[in-house]
Design goal:
By secondary structure, the protein is mainly alpha-helical. It contains 7 helices and 2 strands.
Length: 175
């Protein structure tokens, strides 16, 4: 039963309040709220980054990791190396966004998108995590999967894999 209380001042209603009786209140619904912590990892690697930006990026990392089964530590370490957490990053070969996704290299994941869509944080992180998960599943080692991801399978000058693995290990140690 809904009850309405009105606040009268000088005969005029200035405010009205609605109340529900206990009988009208439904049982609280359980909602899943994972313990988001990717933003803390970002701030550990980049303490100079804006805290609100770290929270926004971290939220989308956590969500994409829940979807793909990847560890946030690994994804944060990879993003730190690929783009330094700058969402509008563009590489010399045209990779875009936080996870440096190459639009033309992944037509199955970018179908129906414009190349500029890769600057959207949520979309870029989700697509990047899907790509990384595929590479992990199809590689014999994480080192090989990271090599595929960063495009440095054979070029030792571009071998960022050890840096990503070192940073990920440091982040895992913070658990």
């Amino acid at each position: 039963m809904k009850m309405v209380k009105k606040l009268l001042v000088g005969g005029a209603i200035i405010c009205s309040f609605s109340f529900l009786s206990f009988n009208d209140v439904a049982e609280p619904q359980a909602s899943y709220e994972p313990s988001f912590r990717a933003h803390e990892l970002i701030l550990f690697l980049r303490p100079d980054i804006d805290k609100e930006m770290a929270a926004l990026i971290g939220k989308h990392i956590d969500l994409a990791c829940l979807e793909t089964g990847l560890d946030p530590e690994l994804v944060v370490a990879l993003i730190g190396r690929e783009s330094s957490f700058i969402p509008w990053s563009v590489s010399s070969v045209g990779c875009k966004g936080l996870m440096q996704v190459h639009f033309k290299a992944h037509p199955d994941k970018t179908k129906g998108l414009k190349e500029s869509d890769l600057f959207q944080i949520a979309l870029n992180v989700r697509i990047g995590c899907m790509i990384l998960k595929e590479y992990i599943d199809s590689s014999s080692t994480l080192y090989d999967a990271l090599g595929k991801y960063v495009g440095s399978v054979t070029d030792p000058k571009k071998d960022y894999r050890n840096e990503i693995l070192r940073n990920a290990a440091e982040l895992y140690a913070r658990r």
